[in-house]
Amino acid sequence: MPRTSRSICLLGDGGVIGKMVRSTLLEDPAITNVVSIGPVRPHRLQRKISYHEMDLAADNADNQLSDIIDAEDIDTLLYMGYLSDFGNAELDQANEVRQIISALDRRHVPKAVFASTTAVYGALPTHPTHLVERTPLATTAESEWVQDKVKAEQELNNFLLETDIMVTTLRFALVLGPTVQNFMTDYLGQRSVPIVRNLDPPLQFVHEQDVSRAYCQAVRHDVEGSFNIVGDGALPLSVGLRIGRRRPSSVPELSAAPLSQILWEGDTVEPQPVLADMFTYIWVADGGLASTEMNFQPLFSTKETIESFYRSRREN
User: Fold this and answer.
1) What is the mean pLDDT of residues 195-217?
2) Closest by alpha carbon to 296, among 232, 233, 235?
């Protein structure tokens, strides 16, 4: 059911997706106040948007946030989480979620939307072909990046037992697009892309525009629970590289160096251990629940998303 939101608080909207979300919300006549909160003022912030400087990593962030919620009369909070800084692989999301929950304990808001990732399912040989929202979280994952995202969702699950706030969690697939930047865009953007010999994993993406649309859909409509936000279908890595006219560079499956390290050429990109799992097991999520409960349909399939990403690279 549509919700009339008077005042929206955006946490971590400093990246390109945050700009899309702000622009869309400003066009909605039912939304009278949009508040941006973060450690750095977003570039070219629209005049109608209030900005409050705040770092969620600070010790007193929960007090600051609760004061802002009170002063701005916030009724909907949107936390963009690991997507806040152009999708870089941050390792402090669990702590940020704890700070937000502490603030919400002090200043009640009717609704809160949190960003997460399909990586919380982990990568296991026993996983089904398509991961659904009831799939257990990867509490024993080796990747620190995955552990952080799992801990963040565990904080939310504990919070749900004690609150009447409507909480929506959006689990995004790997994000690609013409402007977004993250460790996967760095990896796929190389001219010569290292691949593991004899492995051709299916990869799933969601377009940056669909990420923005999902945020706005969750803000405007009351939907409670966790939802996979993914592009339709999946593509073998080899097919994605052919689309991008990238040259694959095969590396041995067994190597003295960690797998996450050898998946990059040179030292220009920080390796992420989470990719080692992506290259070994099926890690594709089902978006059916978001379709039925949120009425969310992606505009871009996985194939169209990677085409959009590589097309922008050729034009630049």
Assistant:
1) 91
2) 232
Using 50, 70 and 90 to split pLDDT, how confident is the model at 57?
A: confident
Structure tokens, 265: 């050429």
Query: Alpha helix locations (H) across 180-301?
Result: 183-188, 208-220, 237-243, 259-262, 274-278, 288-293
Considering only CA atoms, give the Rg of the chain: 19
Amino acid letter at 151? K
Which CATH number is 7-315's, of 3.30.300.20, 3.30.70.590, 3.30.230.10, 3.40.50.720? 3.40.50.720
For residue 194, pLDDT beyond 90? no
Compute the C-alpha angle 298/91/137, nearest 5°. Answer: 60
pLDDT-based confidence at 1, cuts 50/70/90? very low
pTM of the model: 0.90
